[in-house]
Amino acid sequence: MMKGAIFDVDGVLLDSMEEWDRLGETYLTCLGIRAGEGLADTLATMSMEEGAAWLIRHYGISRTVEQAVEEMAAVMRDAYACRIPKKKGVENYLRGLSGAGIPMVIATSGDGDNARTALERLGLWNYFRGMLTCTQVGAGKNRPDIFLAAAKILEGVPEEIWVFEDAPHAAATARAAGFHVAAVKDAQNARQEAQLARTADIYLKDYGDFEMFRKKAGI
Q: How far apart are CA 192 and CA 175, in angstroms?
């Protein structure tokens, strides 16, 4: 019997991953520099600091790494405040869960201020009891800390709670901790789709059929 839900943000509530993929190109455009081919792939495995250092070296940008990181962060703040859309159909699920009396909490490894800004703009924030970030709990989603902390807010145990995730490592962590997992398809994780589907109790290619989920979750 489902008694609570935990939602990731990027790729689950928000269709934001394309903005992250394009960050290097967008930043260069702001500086009047044309990005080379394959830039997104080059930066994909780098942290923002590593990516900033690479851009400075490769394009001869007159910035320190710290300055470039802050400017790139400003690009993303603007994206969350103005451009990033909600995931198609997700509000159908949020309305359904809310209508069934299922409490919900956000658990994100991203920036909490950016997430809240976008969710308030899109009318989704009020569906949730609150939000936890990995920074707050002091651990990434390779450990279950954030999910267990969210479960306390929901006043439930893992076996009664569903976690909505798009990242394979996060889905695996939640599942190993005893949570049910609804894996959400996102273009960025297309290469890991089979792994994500195997990890989850249910794999959502989209948010189109809430009744199917309702039956599966025992609401």
A: 17
Give 47-95 pLDDT, tens digit per residue. Answer: 889 999 999 999 999 999 999 999 999 999 999 999 999 999 999 999 9
What is the structure's pLDDT at 190?
66
Torsion of CA 13, 49, 52, 54, to 10 degrees: -120
Distances (CA, A) of 131 to 52, 67, 118: 29, 29, 13
CA distances from 162 to 22, 46, 65, 90, 181 (A): 31, 30, 40, 15, 5
Rounded mean pLDDT of the chain?
A: 93
Phi and psi for 66 in degrees, rounded to 5?
-65, -40
Q: Is the dihedral of CA 182, 98, 208, 16 positive or negative?
A: negative
**Euclidean distance between the first and the last CA atom of the chain, given in angstroms as a whole number:** 6
